[in-house]
């Protein structure tokens, strides 16, 4: 087991002077501008921000799926230029291979690395056990619930012992109860593996509950609006979400995001014209009305 | 087997509540009360009620079909369509009993099957890989697609004269026509399957360390399999259509030739026998493909 999970506790992510523009017919669409973020080895960092602000874009650039227009992404000093097993990724859409059983899905990364069958079977079983999934190793993903699928997704991404784990709204499609359980499982795995995590979400509670640090992004074109350390002690309990400390952090982040969301929405609504919405603005800004 | 209580976990793992909660079985495990034969039979009946009903109705409808056929032919009905010379089911059955002892009839069937086997196999062996490669490499697609699009609408039967010119023997030209008939459905469906591969799965494979070759083998190919099998099923149907036409026009042997010959020789019962044989063979071969599909894609069988 230890060889599989062996992690040299590295995984220092650096994103510097980053900007990314999508080329479209109407010209370049600036998704992210002038962004600096970093994740220290073993740190859990979240990115929150209004819809469409470029969170996924940033994460996909760290994964190596997108090339920055300007700036540089490095992991442990090595420039990222393409996807690799060093950076595990979990997607919002469950992205399991439907033609592989749960165990075969988890084994995939090890198979790509050329590990012999018996060895990778053993490794996959150990990891599935950690996530409480060993009873389902022979099931095809189709038969699993959403929460289980996503657990398999996380285990699969961790199986190759990546330096960093990237998650793009992994629990977005799950119900509230399952979400809480998944957050706990993720925290557990993270603490055992001492891996760096970059986590994208639009759920503020989730971001605070999980993270050591939260980046809040501005509306598109996205950049970092604020960086909020989360000094809550670990291990964290569900009950902490009622503490005054938690609520204060929540209020702070809420107002930051609200500002940006209104900015993003205000633009759109003005573009559409307000008639259809049946709201009389009388010279007030949208923020005032709402 | 998947009861949560049985899930073992290491001593120092996550909180037990999380595990117990998290490992709820996807479906409730059936209560294991030892059931008598009677209750099992009853349960089986309830679970399969729909299928039993469909089977019963299917059999009844086939019997009705035979009955109508029988009545139409015994009374030699002429009502727009003339049933005067149409053989009755009993006459066809009589010619069937003699035919199965006739080595010539069996040879016709075997030859048709052989032509289908060779022509269809070639179509699958060429069409599937070509479709996969065209789906993955733009240049190959750009070069081959226009030609395929021009040739595709030409029915295989229209190739008969050309095939006779192209190939030295009759046998080869018939196999060629069978091949052509099944080739395009296979190619087009494989291409379609490739175009529908979920890009997220490709990305998932990439960040698990998969290279181009592995992605092709582990993602594109299995993801396209359902459409490949659709193509094979359609291709098999068209292969029979093309084969029978080719045999009727240019053949010397084969079940299509047998049917046509029966007409020339005024053996009306054999016409219907030939037709039914073609139908049964077509049905059998498409069942074979469906079976192969279930074997190759275990994740799709429910
Ligand atoms: N391929 C593309 N071409 C053009 N524009 C794009 C493309 N992908 C994303 N965008 C735009 O870039 C912006 C950022 O997109 P991105 O998906 O990164 O946002 P996000 O913060 O992840 O949003 P969400 O919360 O909805 O997931 C969006 O406004 C989007 O419309
Ligand atoms: Mg996104």
TrEMBL record, chain A:
Pfam families: ABC_tran (PF00005). SMART domains: AAA. Belongs to the ABC transporter superfamily. Residues 15-244 form the ABC transporter domain. It comes from Bradyrhizobium diversitatis. One of its GO terms (molecular function) is ATP binding. It comes from the Bacteria. This is ABC transporter ATP-binding protein. Keywords: ATP-binding, Nucleotide-binding, Transport. Involved in beta-(1-->2)glucan export. Transmembrane domains (TMD) form a pore in the inner membrane and the ATP-binding domain (NBD) is responsible for energy generation. The keyword Transport applies. InterPro entries: AAA+_ATPase, ABC_transporter-like_ATP-bd, ABC_transporter-like_CS, ABC_transporter_ATP-bind, P-loop_NTPase. Signal peptide: none annotated. The keyword Transmembrane helix does not apply. SUPFAM superfamilies: P-loop containing nucleoside triphosphate hydrolases.
């Amino acid at each position: 087991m230890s060889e599989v999970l062996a992690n040299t506790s590295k995984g220092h992510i650096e994103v510097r002077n980053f900007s990314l523009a999508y080329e479209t017919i109407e010209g370049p669409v600036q998704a992210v501008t002038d962004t600096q973020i970093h994740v220290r080895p073993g740190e859990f960092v979240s990115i929150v921000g209004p819809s469409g602000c470029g969170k996924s874009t940033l994460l996909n650039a760290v994964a190596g799926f997108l090339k920055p227009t300007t700036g540089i992404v490095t992991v442990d000093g090595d420039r990222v230029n393409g996807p690799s097993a060093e950076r595990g990724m979990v997607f919002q859409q469950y992205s399991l291979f439907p033609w592989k059983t749960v165990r075969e899905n988890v084994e995939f990364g090890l198979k790509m690395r050329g590990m012999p069958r018996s060895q990778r079977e053993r490794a996959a079983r150990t990891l599935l056990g950690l996530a409480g999934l060993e009873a389902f190793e022979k099931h095809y993903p189709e038969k699993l619930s959403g929460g289980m699928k996503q657990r398999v997704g996380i285990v699969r991404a961790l199986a190759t012992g990546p330096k960093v784990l990237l998650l793009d709204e992994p629990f977005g499609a799950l119900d509230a109860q399952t979400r809480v359980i998944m957050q706990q499982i993720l925290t557990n795995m993270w603490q055992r593996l001492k891996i760096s995590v970059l986590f994208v979400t639009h759920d503020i509670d989730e971001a605070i509950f999980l993270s050591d640090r939260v980046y809040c992004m501005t509306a598109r074109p996205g950049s970092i609006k604020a960086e909020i350390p989360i000094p809550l002690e670990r291990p964290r309990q569900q009950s902490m979400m009622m503490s005054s400390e938690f609520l204060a952090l929540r209020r702070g982040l809420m107002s930051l995001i609200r500002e940006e969301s209104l900015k993003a929405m205000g633009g759109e609504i003005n573009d559409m014209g307000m008639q259809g919405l049946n709201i009389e603005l009388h010279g007030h800004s949208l923020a005032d009305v709402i | 087997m998947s009861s949560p209580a049985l899930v073992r976990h290491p001593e120092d793992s996550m909180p037990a509540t999380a595990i117990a909660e998290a490992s709820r079985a996807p479906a409730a495990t059936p209560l294991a009360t030892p059931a008598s034969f009677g209750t099992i039979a009853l349960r089986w009946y309830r679970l399969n009620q729909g299928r039993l009903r469909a089977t019963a109705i299917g059999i009844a409808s086939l019997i009705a079909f035979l009955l109508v056929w029988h009545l139409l032919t015994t009374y030699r009905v002429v009502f727009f369509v003339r049933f005067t010379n149409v053989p009755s089911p009993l006459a066809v059955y009589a010619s069937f009993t003699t035919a199965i002892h006739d080595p010539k009839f069996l040879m016709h069937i075997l030859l048709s099957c052989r032509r289908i086997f060779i022509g269809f196999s070639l179509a699958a062996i060429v069409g599937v890989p070509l479709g996969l490669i065209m789906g993955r490499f733009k240049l190959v697609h750009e070069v081959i697609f226009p030609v395929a699009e021009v040739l595709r609408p030409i029915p295989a039967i229209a190739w008969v004269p050309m095939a006779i010119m192209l190939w030295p023997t009759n046998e080869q030209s018939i196999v060629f026509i069978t091949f052509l008939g099944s080739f395009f459905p296979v190619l087009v469906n494989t291409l379609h399957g490739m175009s529908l591969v979920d890009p997220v799965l490709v990305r998932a494979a990439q960040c698990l360390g998969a290279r181009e070759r592995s992605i092709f083998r582990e993602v594109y190919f299995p993801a396209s399999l359902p459409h490949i099998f659709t193509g094979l099923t359609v291709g098999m149907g068209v292969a029979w259509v093309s084969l029978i036409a080719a045999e009727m026009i240019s053949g010397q042997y084969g079940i299509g030739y047998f049917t046509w010959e029966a007409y020339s020789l005024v053996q009306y019962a054999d016409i219907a026998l030939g037709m039914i044989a073609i139908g049964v063979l077509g049905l059998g071969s498409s069942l074979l493909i469906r079976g192969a599909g279930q074997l190759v894609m275990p994740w799709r069988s429910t």
